[in-house]
Design a protein that fits this description.
heterodimer, A: 121 residues, seven-stranded mixed sheet, four-stranded antiparallel sheet, globular
């Protein structure tokens, strides 16, 4: 059974940093691209970042480029999102999602339960 | 960036009725890399359709997807109580992999 377990969210002040982690199990982790998707009440679902199965290719939405870094450790079956220079508009529930293939150009077939991040002073 | 526009914003129907949801892209979606998800309160989103017309594992056949290029449709042939949720389309053909703004399917 595919399981995606997120951790690392919480409350942070504007300008601060957080690192989200996602522990994966139930599939051959290195064979599949992974992404982070966030959900806000006002904007619905927003794809944030993706990484290929090997980790060699990374992709970001424009609003987080230069502030967020996606990475993965295939030896630990874990996905990460390092978030720096956080802004109020980054407040959202962040989902770890599994792609259906090794390239990020795949639909998202499994989702974690979501990890709330609140950026507020 | 490909912008996806979903319509209608809200759809009010009764169980047993047919639902048709639309997703229009600002430019052609390559290789029909278009997916549909639904999101229920307190639950993670679930993949329904990928590749514009392929049902994901475990999705009942009352759900069907169609379309190509810039116009896509999700049809639910006969609504069950558990189908009332928010539906999102997403293109994954070119980064950034954008979502539509959602259609809320509510019980009439």
């Amino acid at each position: 059974e595919v399981q995606l377990s997120e951790s690392g969210g919480g409350l942070v002040q504007p300008g601060g940093s957080l690192r989200l982690s996602c522990a994966a199990s139930g599939f051959s982790f290195s064979n599949f691209a992974m992404s982070w998707v966030r959900q806000t009440p006002g904007k619905g679902l927003e794809w944030v970042s993706g990484v290929s199965g090997s980790g060699g290719n990374t992709y970001y939405t424009d609003s987080v480029k230069g502030r967020f870094t996606i990475s993965r450790d295939n030896s630990k079956n874990t996905l990460y999102l390092q978030m720096n220079s956080l802004r109020a508009e980054d407040t959202a529930v962040y989902y770890c999602v599994k792609g259906g293939c090794s390239s990020p150009s795949c639909s998202f077939d499994y989702w974690g339960q979501g990890n709330p991040v609140t950026v507020s002073s | 960036e490909i912008v996806l526009t979903q319509s209608p914003g809200t759809l009010s129907l009764s169980p047993g009725e047919r639902a048709t949801l639309y997703c229009r892209a600002s430019q052609s979606v390559s290789s029909s890399y278009l997916a549909w998800y639904h999101l229920k309160p307190g639950q993670a989103p679930r993949l329904l359709i990928y590749g514009a017309s392929n049902r994901a594992t475990g999705i009942p056949d009352r759900f069907s997807g169609s379309g190509s290029g810039t116009d896509f449709t999700l049809t639910i042939s006969r609504l069950e109580p558990e189908d009332f949720a928010v539906y999102y389309c997403q293109q994954y053909g070119s980064s950034p992999f954008t979502f539509g703004q959602g259609t809320r399917l509510e019980i009439k």
